[in-house]
Automatic annotation (TrEMBL):
It comes from Paralvinella palmiformis. Residues 1-83 form the CUB domain. Keywords: Disulfide bond, Repeat. Gene3D superfamilies: Spermadhesin, CUB domain (2.60.120.290). This is CUB domain-containing protein.
Amino acid sequence: MSINVCDLQKVQIGFQGFELESSCVYDFLQSFNGGDDEAPRVGYYFGSDLPGIVTFSGNTSYLKFTSDVSITYSGFLGFYKFV
């Protein structure tokens, strides 16, 4: 998922709930400081520790969720805003 805002703003994301597999191999969320997964990676999230607030340095961010089908967890509930 790509999030784009006006040139003078930045994207900020946070999470209200986070529960994925504890292994970083099967279920994980990545955040990138740009428009796709070729941009510099900002975060790599897995397990059940709630990630902190992330403010991207530019006006475009990209989130990529990867999962397998073997074990099901609750997933995550996130939000974004423009700052």
